[in-house]
Amino acid sequence: MVATDAQSQIAAKQLKYPKSTFFIIGNEFCERYSYYGMRAILALYMRNVLLYAEREATIIFHIFNFLCYIFPICGGTLADAYIGQYKTIVYSSIIHSVGNVLLALAATPWFFSPRVFSLLALILVAAGAGLMKPCISTFGGQQFVLPQQAKQLATFFSIFYVSCNVGAFLSAITSPIIRQDIKCLGQQSCYPLAFGVPAILMLLALVLFICGKPWYKMLKHGGSIPLTALKCIFHGLRRRLLSNKKQEVSSHWLECVADKYDPQMQADARDVLRVLAMYIPVPMFYALYDQVGSSWIFQASKMDGVVPNWFIIKPDQLAFLNPLVCMLFIPMLELFIYPALAKIGIRRPLQYITVGAALCALSYVMAAYVEVKLEPCYAKLPSPELGQLRIFNGLPCPLELQPPIDGEQFISPLGALQRTELQVEKTRILREDLILNAGLPCMNVGVPENWTREISLSEEESVSYIITDLGGTIDLLRVPGFDDVSKSQINAPKLRVIHNFAGPLTLKSQYGSELTFKLLESDVVTPLIEVDSGTYDAMYGDQMVLSNLQIESGGVYTLVIQKIDSRIVGNLHTITPPATLHLLWMIPQKTVMSIAEVFFAMTYVSFTFTQTPAKMRSIMQSFLSMSMSLGSVVVVLVASVGFKRQAYQFLLYAGLMFLDVILLILLSLRYKYREISPSEDIEPFRVEGAPSPEDVPGQDATKPQQMPETARENLCDKS
Question: Which Gene3D superfamilies match (predicted)?
């Protein structure tokens, strides 16, 4: 025995680390950067550029996720039974690359039918990423000769996992910067480049992988062994349904397949069914987890990401927390977390999974709390049978309005009357009596007697009027068009200027930037535009009109500037409140969700590995992937309902997840863990191009080369 170990050590020294794995790791880094870089900005692209409503964008996003989880089943079948892993990876990479390029082209302003081609591109990306998923890590593992290179194989999978997370981490930081901070093609953002960079990385991944072909060891593909077990299960079901119920009932219904299948196959089939039952809670977890890239992104887009005097955090940039937390938390598991949990009786995989499910539910309670705090900042849009009215006082003296709005109203000097819920059926005409308190500031302003003006309201619209000085006489003017009170899709402040004189008005920010409005005599108001947040001074020529104007993220503002005699006066009015909750408030819920992923997702992968027969592990990983895909179906169904408040939807998901926790506990109590024999920890692989046993020092020629089965199909599984 000692001699054998010594021979193995000598053989391990003589076998060099496979050069081919460097191409595979480089391919994985580029492909994961490409996938996550595209996915990080996808939800905002569908809402901001393709102009889908948030509910529609969420549905499309999760249909895309569903396809990403379904295609691995096809990829595994292609690789194992038909064309082999190498060709599957190459062909899927080509499909992936075409999808990325098409998505970048569809994002350009001159591309026709951007919605159609964007959706087609997403189908191609899902197909490419999904078909490749069950092959790439497995293909890397088979480059090693076992058992001599077992330690090198473990190192490979560690590097493989790190490359995946580094790619996800870097893309989550850089893609949002390219999307928002770079202006291109006459747009305020640059989605074509933000999608173009992942496309380039995917093409590079393809080139890297092909370049390694001379050094690859190829696995011969053959028939699907798990198919026999599936036939065994279906045969047992059919025999059970057709059997005479009066006959003696066997201890297990699979025993009735003894006419065709041996006891070992029956035992394997029973193990498979036990594990499949434990997949029932999986869809609900992924229904919540996958919304990190959709609903949570939309929530983040409504928050303030400004770090004063430093930079602005983009809503989709917080995606970097997931790979970062995973990379930091995973090493802590064995050292601190698992020993601490063991002291309170949590030692088994299903217990860890239950902890992850509970943390997932908790993260959605936190998300609902954040949403409730955000709601006061949301735009109050005109509703059916209601209209909105704003009357701006452009005079430096107070005004009074007589009924019929809702009683006598007082408008302070340079103030505004804002009513957001006035009863209107189609149109409504109000006749308002205005009384001017002509104090010293307005001594030179002429006020007609019995001054009455009509105000017209429209259903589901917002209108504005300005009381202004026109050459020494006041009048009530309608601001042309209807008011846009909605927030910016990129959470930028929106600003317009109502004026009664011509000339350039310059806003100078605290950071030194300038914004100039060209005021025209023919217009009462400037167009509503998006501006940068900050503190501004308003300048008319060299004259400072107003100072310290606070324009904050997500707010909608109206700046009223009026010339009274030779003086210029004004005031800044908030139409829609800015985002008062900072983006960093999302860090707790995202951190808890990332920890939940480690406990739930990673443990499920290892649980599947240890609790299923060796030859059934690949197909069971495919079933696990398929159960994950059902989570997206849950999201689509819930999103189709259309909740009036997002907080209610988050609480619904939290409640469903708590029920899932209870289900997990009940299933765990009934589950009997499977005893694993040492022989099942290895799985034979016949490899083309690998040295024969006779040629490898320390290798027993009578034994096949062996490679430890891993949960490789789900390495880096964040799709």
Answer: MFS general substrate transporter like domains
In a domain, 524, yes or no: yes
Q: Residue 552 contacts by C-beta under 8 Å, 6 or more apart in sequence? A: 304, 306, 493, 533, 578, 579, 580
d(CA 527, CA 511): 24
- What is the amino acid identity at position 248? E
Angstrom distances, CA of residue 125 to CA of 39, 51, 312: 10, 21, 30
Instruction: Write out the residue range of the structural domain in which residue 706 sits.
Output: 2-220+278-377+581-714
pLDDT of residue 377: 92
Closest CA to 305 of 31, 578, 712: 578
Burial class (CB in 10 A: 0-12, 13-18, 19+), 616: buried
Nearest to 197 by CA among 173, 163, 162: 173
pLDDT of res. 434: 61
User: What are the distances in angstroms from CA 351 to CA 67, 398, 442, 485, 666?
Assistant: 30, 68, 76, 50, 11
Alpha helices in 84-135 (DSSP H): 84-106, 114-132
d(CA 142, CA 696): 16
* HEC profile of 477-502: EECCCCCCCCCCCCCCCEEEEEECCC
What local confidence, expressed as pLDDT, does residue 244 receive?
Answer: 59
pLDDT of residue 702: 35
**What is the mean pLDDT for each group of 10 consecutive residues in the chain (719 residues)?**
50 74 94 94 95 93 93 82 87 97 95 94 96 83 78 79 87 92 89 97 96 86 60 69 56 60 68 87 96 93 85 87 87 86 90 96 98 94 89 85 65 90 77 56 59 81 90 84 92 94 92 89 92 92 91 95 87 95 95 94 80 70 84 92 91 97 94 67 39 40 37 47
Q: What is the DSSP letter of 698?
A: T
Tokens for 562? Answer: 């009026």
Looking at the chain, how many residues does it have?
719
Out of 549, 576, 603, a domain closes at 576
Per-residue model confidence (pLDDT) at position 229: 64
Q: Which two tokens stand for residue 191?
A: 């989605």
CATH number where 139 lies: 1.20.1250.20
| pLDDT at position 610 | 75
Q: Which two tokens stand for residue 402?
A: 């007589």
Q: Is 168 helix (H, G, I), strand (E, B) or coil?
A: helix
Residues 558 and 541 in one domain: yes
Interhelix angle 282-289/349-374, rounded to 10 degrees, is: 40
Residue 463's DSSP bridge partners are 389
CA–CA distance, 717 with 597 (Å, rounded to integer) = 10
pLDDT for residue 703: 37
**24 and 106 fall within a common domain:** yes
Say whether pTM exceeds 0.90: no
- Quick one: three-class SS letters along 261-290? CCHHHHHHHHHHHHHHHCCCCHHHHHHHHH
